Protein 1
Amino acid sequence: MANSEQVEFSRKRRFKNRVKNVVQNPYNIMVLISVLLMIYLIVVPLGQMIKQTFTLAEQDAARIAGAKPGQFSFYYWKRVLVGSISDKMLWIPLKNSLIIAVFTSIFGVTLGSLFAWLMVRSDLPLKKFFSLALIVPYMLPSWCKAMAWLTIFKNDRVGGAQGFLGYLGMQTPNWLAYGPFAIITVLVIHYYAYAYLLVSAALSSINSELEEMGEILGASKARILTKITFPLVLPAILSALIMTFSKAMGTFGVPSILGLKIGYYTISTTMYNSIQNGQEKVAFVISLILIAIAALTVLLNQMAIGSRKSYSTIGGKGSRSNPIRLGKWRTVITVILFIFVILAVVVPIIILLYQSLMLEPGNYSFDNLTLHYWVGESVPTIDQGEPGIFKNPQFLKYVGNTVKLVVLTSIFATIFGQLIGYINSRGRNKASGKLVEQLVFIPYLIPSIAFGSMYLALFATAKKVEMFGYRVTLVPSLYGTFLILVLIAVVKNMPFASRAGTSNMLQISTELEEAAMIENAGFMTRFFRIVFPLSKGGMISGFMLVFISIMKELDLLVILMTPSQQTLPYMAYAYTTENLLQLSSAVTIVMFVLVFFVYWFANTFTDADITKGF
Amino acid sequence: MMKGKRKFLKLTAALLAAGVTGSVLLGCEKIEDDEGGGEEQGTDSGWAEKAGLDKDEPSDELYEKCVDEEEGKVVIYSISSRMAKVKASFEKDYDKMTMEVYDINANDMSTKLLTEYNSGIRTADVVHSKEQTGDYMINFFDKGILLNYQPESIFGDVKEEYLEDMTPLYFETDWWFYNEDVYDDTPITNWWDVTKPEMKGNFVLQNPIGTVSYMTVFTTMVEHADEMAEAYKECYGEEIELADDEPTAAHAWMKRTMNNDPVIFDSNNEVIQSVGEGSESSLIGYSPSSKYREKADKGWNIEAKPLDMEPASGVAFMNFVAVVNEAPHPNGAKLLIRYLMGGEDGNGAGIQPFNTIGGWPVRPETKKAEGNVPLEDMTLWMINYDYVYKNLQDVQDYWYKFR
């Protein structure tokens, strides 16, 4: 009798202990908080967006007999998928976007992986210089490069002042100046950076002993490359492919500048137009289709990589890497790399700089140079009296806005990224860890413009419900506050930041924490005394990644910004559309200098390395 | 035991942190009895009266009030980059004033303004925009979000009909521009000219998908489809034959124009640049008439002959100025509007940036820009806001189909 009571008691106690364990384990609390936050900030907006596509708007209800505004309807889906204009609205732009995305990812990833291999594995000279130079394209907004492309290649189809080649007497054909070829080329020299960063990170983590072993066994260089190195970095290459693919699908600036002029539309330019002419719901439908495509590629990737996903732990520590000798190819490759750096890095920057100094656009002679657009006072006959940027009080205000936004966003994104990284790394084999990993990845799939309008729809006005005599604000009205800009920027960059956090945390062995646990160290002690100090370098790398990406962010914020909150990219873009090219170039250069300086500083004075962020 | 206690404390701390985060995002308040319901955006005519929008104080008096009561500040959202010029002269004439100008794309203005207003944000005192589809009339003025300020001393002599719904700053239209170094005379006198084979790939437009004003022109064209049919006859010397997918002559014009390879740009600044910059461009481009100023400002070789256009040169767009309901600086707003209208005598510095060739101020006292075509001499379609509001979407779909 007593015995069974005891069993009963201990069973109860075990149950109680189990519950207590779950509730008191900081890991679980962190998971709970992050899941709740992510549901609120990612899943709810996405759900709202889906719901919106089935709800008739006022102006559209009038076009359907007997329909009332707000009622459930397939109108928007029908309009996009099977309507009379769906060819022009969806299918043709989709085909164009797919072509661009496929070629951009193939070429960009090939190029980036090659660079990564050269930088990490070979005895290439001047590595310090190249490692900085190869990151620079990533620091300039992609649309700036499209403008630079036009400056060189533009022909008489678009009239106006001649492009540089036209100035030299060469007429470029349309296919070279505009359209898919131009778009893909510009995107490749922008997006190869992703593959470069990801693959370098993977390559650095492989122990060169594996390759040396192959060498000892008499394998040729080509065989080592294809049979040992390549399979080991394949997961990184595949992730780079996907990142580039979905970025290229959603990109707006480049296809708008280089495609529109010959009637070449992509899904992102179509979507942007739909938002511009008030057809937000149509844009939502299109972006949901985009999200579905992106999600599909991610799924394919996961099926392809399967269990080898945790590639970054391959090899272990203490590897000493012996660079592979390039032999007679060394000079040739160095020269080719130099030419690439000059074309993709130096030329666009010089064009921007030169443009900011030209008094009259299109006049390339030296006596046309001026500092007016930098430090000139307002002259009524030049650019409607817009003063040089350093004489413009609004410019200083926008610099302030930008710095505030970028710093706040990077800090928050880094902190949350590391926390989520901690969950991901410690919860690799738990359902909770996987759930968090999947949730945090969603913002990556949503095109920036759509993400912006999604947040606008959700946070423009407060939504309240009445419960138990209290009015609970479910969604506060955040439009016009600085908070919403920070919020959306943090959420959108979470996939990056948490990725950096995960790889960072994976490097910190749990043994260290377990040892501390035996010594009775609590969670907080462990986190702040062990995990945090060890992850500082990776944190700064993650910080840099977010910093650079927000610094040039335009699409995401453009809809949410009130006029008094404008940032530098917006100012540059607004100047571009106002045809004030010199001013826009000057602003872009300031942006670039800011990013470059911060990056250089972090790179020199801390142990941060942006490639470690991946 | 110690450990358990510490753990408990930490747990509490974590929960507290979660709670704080949660309440920042959620927030709740006790429901008060009979609450006024702050959300509804009914017309608060009380504010307009309190702000004295019906009064006619002289500018000097307003200036003093601005400096004393409103820290000498006024904020304007404008669709025109020329507002920067007004800022320069305004701050010179009223040297204790600061005028903040936000240049906002005409396509974004209405959405931005409405979202901001409904969120309870009041940044702008004055708005300068362009009415195109009836959007402002129906969604702003009728709802009391934008208010008119029409003092007798400034608007006394302006035509009644202009003042009914809004407060006009000036009128504007669009013209077909050409490069005068390339052409001796205008290469286009009829809208149908751009459908001719020799014009293939030789004309520029700002992307009408996403640019409401051009869709307004095309929608108005559909409303006047019979005139388009007549113009066709004049151009080609025969009656137009409509294909099955061309419901009217105006639709036929759109389709045939699209089939003639137009060059499409993102902004009208690019359009005017492509036409006028240099001495080689054979392109012709449709662009706002006020861009004529680039001839002097940037030295571009642009010219337009709106009087020769058949069946009409375009539509007349009204640029209006309005005070935002509950604006933070009402006196500043009044002062600025008076200034923009050219001040007491109608010829002050505020109106001058808009008083150029291709812009038509509404006050008869304002001396007209030299060489400007009188507004009355052009054949212009007047916008039927009702018609445009209802039909714009269909016309846009049609354009989409053939782009």
Protein 2
Amino acid sequence: MLAVILPALAICWRLWSFQLHPAAHQEYKVRAESAKLRTLQPLRGTIRDRRGGVLAESRSGFDIHFVYSDLNPRHIVIEVVCEELARLGDFPSVTEMEAGLAETVDIEKLVSLLRQGIPFKPEWVPLAIWIPPAAAERIRLRLGPRRYFRDHFELRVMKDKPLEAQQAHFGLWFRPVEVFRMELTLRRLSQSIGRYDTEDLMERLQLSLQKIEAMVARDIQSDIRSGADALFTRKKEKNSRRIFYRRGHLLAPDISLDSVSRIEYNPDLFPGIRIVDSSRRIYPHGEVFGALTGHLRQLNNRDLKILEKSGRRLDRYPKVSSAEAFAVLRQGALRPNDVVGEGGLEEQYDLALRGEYGMRLQQVGKNGRGGKLLASLSSTRGKDIHTTIDSKLQELLYRQLWAECAHHGHAAASAAIMEIPSGAILASTAYPGYDPNRIRDANYHKEMNASLGSQTPDWLLDRPRSKALYPGSIFKIVTTIAALENGADWEGAVDPLRKYECLVGEQKPFSLRCASRYGHGHLDLYEAFEASCNNYFYYLAARHLDAGGFNQWARRLGCGDLTGIDLPAMGGAYDRGFLKKPEDVKGEKALCMYGIGQVQVQMTPLQALRMVGAVATGLKAAPRPWLVKKKAPDKIHTRNSRTGAIIQECMKRVVSSPHGTVHGKFGLEDFNFAAKTGTAQYKSNNPRYHSWLVGYGPLPNPSIAFVVVCEKSRLGGGDACSPIVRELMEYLAGTDPRFLAGQEGSFSSSRKTGDDR
Amino acid sequence: MKAGLFSNRMIRWHLAAISLGLCGIGILFVHSTMRLDGEAFPGKVAWSQIIKACIAFGGFIVVSRINYRFFERKSYTLYGLVLFGLCVLLGLKFLRGDPSASRWFRLALFDVQPSELMKLGLILCLARYLRYRQDQGGLKGLLMPCLLTVVPMGLVILQPDLGTALVLPCILLAMVFVAGAPWKYVIAVLALAALSIPAVGIFGDKIPLLKPYQLSRITGWLHQDEPSVRLREAYQLDQSKVAIGSGGLTGRGYGRGNQNVLGNLPARHTDFIFSVVGEEWGFLGAALLILLLTGLVLLCFSVAMGTEDPYGKLLAVGIGASFAVQSYQNIGMTLGLTPITGLPLPFVSYGGSSLVSSYAALALVARVATQRVRVLSPQELEPAPPLAPVPAAEHRRAKRLVTLWRD
């Protein structure tokens, strides 16, 4: 007996601790009552340029939702009729009956008559005939209470049959005008919206219905698994479907205010249609800022698992009973239907831009409705992000890049501008870019892939940050600095005035040739740099440098390392470029290639910009590029105090000297800046190159550094990039006259000839 | 035996009254959990349960009129038939290649659940086997009863139906204890069972017979108070506790329980019907239900104590133990005292098979109570001394008494 009474007492004790203990009872009561927690979605923050102009913002919009049970009430009738007829043998299914409906009535004729205000004849059309009286009675019992059935359907005795048949069978008749409510509504809707035609809307509706079926199947899955009987499962399935059919589902997103007005002015013409407020992310500049701003994407299963593990999945929260508890839980929390940033600033600053959810905790009445507000917390709008970008400069650069690629057939082109000495990025753009407004449209991807083809398959890449290319002759900046700094003291380093000879044809002992057709003759460092003589730099690399020295200075100037810009890193060689390890650079030939920026090294445009920025500061610091949060530059120490001045002089002569590779190109010598061109072979025996032009200005106190690169171009660095730099200089000169040549005193020294050296 | 209200004759009426009371509560709450909006009592589902209850009670009346000796003679046959049914069910499941639960034979008019019948079959078989044996004191004597239990237990686990499978060893334990097994064996088995639950929680994923959802139920029960577990593995249990806890002393009112009406509580018409009673009728309603169920079990055990026939005693003990385990396991799981196993509450939960087998079992107990079987003691078997001649009047009086006694 004890074995029976003791468990009963234990259960009673447990019941007491739940139901009669005041604290526990109160807690369970609150949890039972606060069943409805509604979350309030926050508005995403805006991304702005340096003047406050909008680069990305969320705007409120309108979506069209449909409630299927109001839009198409005939589905219930068809389902019941088919069910009752199916009990008696081989009768049509719901799909067949729907198809039969469409064949029975000419919808086009119906629409046109309605438009003209002419009544459709016949007013009643048969749907099903030869319905046995028992089935007809059951149909009447089940559907009779529904007003829709009573008003628009009729069970009639079949009068044209013999008496015995009359007593035996019925026909089900319907009124087309009301029964085809869904088709008529969708037609009117497509005319009101304009963007979608009727077939599109019907297709969207069918897709939504398929999603509803999937949700119903998920609902009953657990019951099937736990072995519930078929009757229960069928009932639950019907109940679940009925609930979903009474809810709103998305039909058409982002419709205009005009369309909304038309729909709301005549709501009777659009039964089952609801207008719902929604917000959209707009990128006003489109592809100009595509990769820089990034775009938004839906959360995927991996994201949801991570959120769940870290307890930040909002729909899986335990029940909260106060605003304070929710305030703690909502930090960084997301719902499964939310969007997050992907690529660019949207991803980097997603947490700040996202904002925080609010909530309303409402007491629930008997049918899940009504109830008093127990607690509320308003949502926190996302923070606005202010960047250092100059939109006008960015736009200008993009248009120029686009024009040059279209005119000269470059595969792609990138450009970036940095403020000196802070490192703030004023512009960073590339062609081809992508339009973040359309990035989620599959047709857009098909269009882009079709138009760009195999030429530029990586059009989604943020090229200034992530596209690593052979630098070519711009790497001679590193070679020069390394050679000047080599050795324990000045005697070991290269003498900038020492001359080497550049002959036409293959030059022994390196078995390499210069790009010059006639040979440059005897050159010192300044002349070799301004003319970009390969032979001279072969000597420098092979005679004055080793791989370790190259590597050391290349790293100091930003090669082979992340630039540190506040954008999400892509990983691998994408953002770091490539720098061969010293131990892997074997032999003189390899060193020579290193010296002219081929084979051993790859740089991204931003890395090149950093390198030039370091030169612009006189080799005192290598600025770190940034867009939102300022970064401190890396200090550089040179053994030789004149190294900075020498390399600056070299770069100045590229523009000012008549032998400079930039001089005479599109009148760039009219502007006051220093530069270096580069023409990198990226494939042997290929007539196309990566053409670079890097520089800074105005002299002698530069305020900006720039980089322009044209990929797979038929032209060299000076010819391919000069038009773009010309436009840039004209724009900059418009804001700062120092960019014009002759506006500063020290510039005249660059015009001295060799006699003065 | 006591006379009057608590006599053996009256016990069957007590049993019938308690079972009808439980059934009535069950029908009321099945209606509360399964009715559509605005549907009056009794709704469609409640009608279905009423019909099943009527059929089951009819079966109770019929079976209680049959001499239980008939079942005693057919015990092994019935056991074998039900075992065969289990094998056929499993065979069909593997032939179809269907991994989902397969617990019913779906016949034209009704469904039959062999595992429910197996409980009764096992009780009959064990009672027949153990009735006259004296060797339960040693392990050897317990081998056959264990085998008779383990085989159907394995078949039921493979369905899978862990809840019913766990009732069978409890029946075995109670019956062998009453048959004379020593205390130490019983305590050893209970201790092993208590240790096995946390062991399953730790090493459960290595046990091939356990399905993932069964394992998650055990881990959910073991960590039921952790916030993340409450949202996932222990969600059903958590909702059950909220339902019961919010009931208070008198409950929220019939048909007004939030957890019930809003559908927050899964399986509330079957496994978690006690939670709905606790929510809508409060502590008083829940205590009434526990009282009725405990009373039923105690009555079964008192019938066992009151009969001298070993078969009848074992039968009543087995059936009482089966009711006790099912009831306490079901109520315990709604309160978080035991892991969730999917055992229905006898007479109360929605479902026909459980109702029919419960009433059939109860009918056997009622028959044991009313059918007096006199077991002769050894002294009575010794030859009696010669009697003095009895006068005729005395002889006639004695004859009348014997006639009365035979009735």
